[in-house]
Amino acid sequence: MRRCFYCKTNLYRALAETPEARAGWPIVNGTNADDLGDYRPGLEAASQHDVVSPLVEAGIGKDQVRELARLWQLEVHDKPATPCLASRIVYGISVTPERLSKIDAAERFLKGLGFATVRVRLHGDDLARIELDPEDLTKLLDYPLRSGVVDELVRLGFRYITLDLFGFRSGSLNPGFKP
Hints:
2 domains; 3 strands
């Protein structure tokens, strides 16, 4: 359950050894004000390593980040969030390169079919729980598309493929999550 804590701890330790950090430059992250209401063990690691969160300090949330990016004409202003692939693996299951690769391939495939917001959550070794924008749920159920998705995910090594009827929910594997 604390894999993000350990991962971020290793990251911040490595960053602390860079010439910039040794010269007194702060280590900063992209945590924003909206991230504070979710289960984020990586924030504990940031706190322990004196990492600065300027967006939090300014009270800036996700919508404001997007608005600023749009104002500054950055091409990524409407890019969907892309959290770590390990966040797709249910707690208690070890994170391995094979599992991450399988999830990544499944999500790339679904995005290639035109689904903008996609999460493939891995339960066990062989159950894929697909989360999409709610308005895209019925699109995936149409026969030719559904059959192709099943074939590809089975080819990738999934034995069971489910569609989450809640649709996409950020943090849906986090403890205490409520839809």
